[in-house]
Amino acid sequence: MAGAKQGHLQAKGTHPGQITFKRSNKDVSGTQANNKTEEKHARAIVKSDVNAAKETLKPTIKAKVNATAVRKPGVHKVLSLDVTLVPRDSGAVGQFGQAALVASNEKAEMRKRWDEGFFNVYLSDQIPVDRAIPDTRPETCPQYLVHDDLPSTSVIFCFVDEVWSTLVRSVHSVLNRSPPHLLKEIILVDDFSTKDYLKEPLDKYMSQFPKVRIIRLKERQGLIRARLAGAAAAKGEVLTFLDSHIECNVGWLEPLLERIYMDRKKVPCPVIEVISDKDMR
């Protein structure tokens, strides 16, 4: 599925499709029935005793079935949500993912700021943080069926001295294009950044979004430890790790969660497309 520029998921907790058996605590006379249940189950296996096998207790959770193979109630087509806080300006620079140009009299400033992120930071700062982008998914993706009861996820961004506009645009893309009932939270893990704009200004900006919270590490830990810190604080059933300079497309989340829903051992990754470092297309 076409989604974020970079990302992968990791399951957390018990797989929804895992089958567990619940044993009876007492028989009709009030005595313990655990041993009897186990004996009947064993007898059914050894002697092919069909009647005894029927007496073993049923699973408490039903196994999941591939949504693409069985089309029945309980599944739906992938949602293509894109909701913004305010209407978009159709004439804004870089809107709809269009390539943007820097005027000749501004190129000196563009070159001056290039090293801040090793891309066109000057241009990025002029592009709306919640810009629209074209739906680049393959034609089959919007028709894909996913289960109604997908697990919730915590989206974790780890960053160090990230450019303001790309970090904020990453967060907006997740908020705007994720089904609200599946997005438990967004966790920003600041791995000891030195930029002032990533401190109080970032706290103030993100305070308008109840689902966003910031974790600040007291010393540089590196990517893996920063991700572990985010994972330890996460409340969602699934962990989603994304880079801090991405833009998620519509319908990006549900197909990934569907893979986890079907098999919690899987670590799916979206189709990754490149955002131009020069014109931000």
Automatic annotation (TrEMBL):
Report if keyword Disulfide bond is assigned.
yes
Note the InterPro entries from the entry.
Glyco_trans_2-like, Nucleotide-diphossugar_trans
User: Which Gene Ontology BP annotations are present?
Assistant: protein O-linked glycosylation
The chain's coiled-coil residues are none
Q: Domain Glycosyltransferase 2-like: where?
A: 154-278
Q: Mind telling me which GO cellular component terms the entry cites? A: Golgi apparatus
Asked if the keyword Chloroplast belongs to this entry, the reply reads no
Q: Which UniProt keywords apply?
A: Disulfide bond
Which Pfam family, just one, is annotated for this protein? Glycos_transf_2
The molecular function terms of the Gene Ontology recorded here are:
polypeptide N-acetylgalactosaminyltransferase activity
Q: Looking at the record, which segments are called Disordered?
A: 1-44
Task: Write the protein's name.
Answer: Glycosyltransferase 2-like domain-containing protein
The organism named in the record is Mola mola (Ocean sunfish)
Query: What is the taxonomic lineage of the source species?
Result: Eukaryota, Metazoa, Chordata, Craniata, Vertebrata
